Amino acid sequence: MSNQIQLEQVISGLNLDLSWEYAALIQYVQHASMLYGPEYTAVIDELLTHAEQEHEHAVIISDIIQYLGGIPTVEVANRLTSLSNTEMLRQDLQGEYDAIRRYLQRIEQLEALHLYDSAQKIRNIVLVEQEHAIDLEKALGMQKVRPGTHYPFSLKP
Fold first, then answer.
1. Rounded Cα gap, residues 115 and 118, in angstroms
2. Which fold has domain 3-139?
3. What is the spatial distance between Cα 105 and Cα 102, in angstroms, rounded to a whole number?
């Protein structure tokens, strides 16, 4: 496959990622406004922070697309809504998992074209998306280490 075709595929993929960043920003803002109950006060603040970071990601991705010779999309991917606190957080978490998966693919594509600077920018976005996933997992009460088991990096047996 020629480098030009690979580059066009990367630009197309980045535009898809951009449409999902727009959707995530909107979805986080909407979910933050719809969460209810005093136990969600800190979660609401965290979702608004996530929305700001998704905006930053959109700007970075737009700049990469333009740098690569493409035109950043204005299309917005599908947004999910719910009246259930838990379902909203699950929707947001699935969005983060999907973003991480897409971005890891984009890093491989960019590095195959020797565009290491752009790959590094996407790698930095992945770090933030992973932090979002961890925040949402905690808000949903998801435990990675089960009670009664030893933490894998513990010095104690």
1. 6
2. Ferritin (1.20.1260)
3. 5
CA angle 97, 63, 100 (to 5 degrees): 10
* Burial letters 82-99, b for 16+ CB under 10 A, else e: eeebeebbebbbebbeeb
Residues 32/51, Cβ–Cβ less than 8 Å: yes
| Tokens standing for residue 59 | 């700007």
pTM of the model: 0.90
Scan for tokens 């209810």, then name that residue. 36
**Orientation of helix 116-139 relative to helix 85-112, angle to 10°:** 160
> Among all chains, which residue has been given the structure tokens 């693919």?
105
Q: Looking up tokens 């933490």, which residue turns up?
A: 151
Q: Three-state SS for 140?
A: coil
| CA–CA separation, 82 and 86 (whole Å) | 9
- pLDDT, one tens digit per residue, over 1-21 is 789 999 999 999 999 999 999
pLDDT, one tens digit per residue, over 79-105 is 999 999 999 999 999 999 999 999 999
